[in-house]
Amino acid sequence: MSFPGKAIQRTWHLIDASSQTVGRLATTVAPLLKGKHKPTYRPNGDCGDVVVIVNAEKVNFSGKKWKDKLYRWHTGYPGGLKQRTANEMLEKAPDRILRKAILGMLSRTNLRHKYIEPRLKIYEGAEHPHTAQLPEGVEPLKKHPRSRTGNYHFGLGGILGQDGTGFSYASPGVSQDGVRYK
């Protein structure tokens, strides 16, 4: 059964990219943009959230990728193949490193180009112009863990159920389906 999408709720997520690995950060952001963390997810529907990333110039790569990784593009003219290392790209346009990594994890469809890409907001410094949606006291999402062990879940913030087996949409102290969580 699909959700008609008349009452889509868009949530604004704030992510601090300082000292986070590019690929691990991208694997956290891409599902949020698509809306895969929602029970109303449809692959052909626009149901994702808005993601604001700050401190894009402070991201990390593992290994020797700062000098070995190449970003290539073509200008469209004969002999117009251009390339930059990741270090040069960080100096020139640090937001493009994250944008290319995140959008590379999404399929190239009209849904991505028209709806998902505009909801990704990346800023170099700690300041962003979206204070109306994300006031001063908003905490950024947790950093992606280095290992897959533990109870990390990107959509629910790591709230475990009362028995410790599953995740709960309810905050601590709120009852859900007649069960009171402590």
What would you note in describing this structure?
The protein is α/β, with parallel strands linked by helices and 182 residues long. The chain has a domain at 12-74 and 82-122: Alpha-Beta Complex (Ribosomal Protein L13p, Chain: A), CATH 3.90.1180. The chain has 5 helices and 7 strands; from the N terminus they run E-H-E-H-E-E-H-H-H-E-E-E. The chain has helices spanning 22-34, 65-68, 86-92, 94-103, 110-116; strands at 12-16, 50-54, 70-74, 81-85, 120-122, 175-176, 179-180. The strands form 3 sheets. Strands 1-2-5 form a 3-stranded parallel beta sheet, covered by helices on one side. A two-stranded antiparallel ribbon has the order 3-4. The protein has a two-stranded antiparallel ribbon with strand order 6-7. A hairpin with a 6-residue loop joins strand 3 and strand 4. It is globular, with a radius of gyration of 19 Å. The two termini are 34 Å apart. One of its GO terms (cellular component) is mitochondrial large ribosomal subunit. GO terms for molecular function: mRNA binding; structural constituent of ribosome. Belongs to the universal ribosomal protein uL13 family. Keywords: Ribonucleoprotein, Ribosomal protein.
CATH class of the domain at 12-74 and 82-122: Alpha Beta
Helix content percent band:
10-25%
Low-confidence stretches: 175-181
How many DSSP helices?
Answer: 5
General shape: globular
CA-atom Rg in angstroms: 19 Å
The helix/strand order is EHEHEEHHHEEE
Spatial strand arrangement across the major sheet = 1-2-5
Within CATH, the superfamily of the domain at 12-74 and 82-122 carries the name Ribosomal protein L13
Determine the CATH topology of the domain at 12-74 and 82-122.
Ribosomal Protein L13p, Chain: A
Query: What's the end-to-end separation, in Å?
Result: 34 Å
Quaternary class: single chain
Coarse structural class: alpha/beta
- Topology, number of strands: 7
CATH architecture of the domain at 12-74 and 82-122: Alpha-Beta Complex
Indicate the proportion of strand residues: 5-15%
